[in-house]
Amino acid sequence: MSATARELRDSTEGAHSQLLVRQLNEQIRSLAGPDALDIVCECVNGSCFERLIVSLDEYEAVRRFPTRFVVKEGHVAGDIEREVVRLDGAVVVEKSGPDAEQAILFDPRRYRAGADADRALRREMEA
């Protein structure tokens, strides 16, 4: 297997882990109050379950971009993602290439926004 194919396989496996943890963190967010969130590290290591504390505003700022994830300091996979900003004890990273495409395709907020728009349109039509 060439280095490129191996890197692509490893990148894809890591991206799947990140997507699953992002889904978990979205569920945590839906249950949380207005205070800081206690979320799980969204790094590429599928066996990482480190906890991170981020403010609600920080979390929402990350989620505006479906290609961004919150990871613990020292968990940045520099070969497949780039550091965007440092938070207190965490780092926001951004995907590019095939991993970014997957992140956009499986963004949980993408579907929620569409469903919310559909409900609003139906309410408006019924009124």
**Oligomerization:** single chain
Low-confidence stretches: 1-8
Distance between the termini: 61 Å
Q: Which strand order do you get reading across the main beta sheet?
A: 3-5-4
Radius of gyration over all CA atoms, rounded: 16 Å
Number of helices: 4
Averaged pLDDT, please? 84
- Number of extended strands: 5
Strand content: 15-25%
Succession of helices and strands: HEEHEEEHH
Q: Helicity level, as a percent range?
A: 40-55%
Shape label: globular
User: How does the helix and strand content classify structurally?
Assistant: alpha+beta
Number of domains: 1
Main β sheet profile: 3 strands, antiparallel
Write the layout of secondary structure elements.
Elements: H1 3-31, E1 37-40, E2 51-54, H2 56-63, E3 68-72, E4 81-87, E5 90-95, H3 97-105, H4 108-126
Antiparallel strand pairs: 1-2, 3-5, 4-5
Summarize the structure.
The chain has 127 residues and is α+β, with helices and mostly antiparallel strands. The protein contains 4 helices and 5 strands, in the order αββαβββαα.
Features:
disordered N terminus; two-stranded antiparallel sheet; 51% helix; 127 residues; three-stranded antiparallel β-sheet; alpha+beta
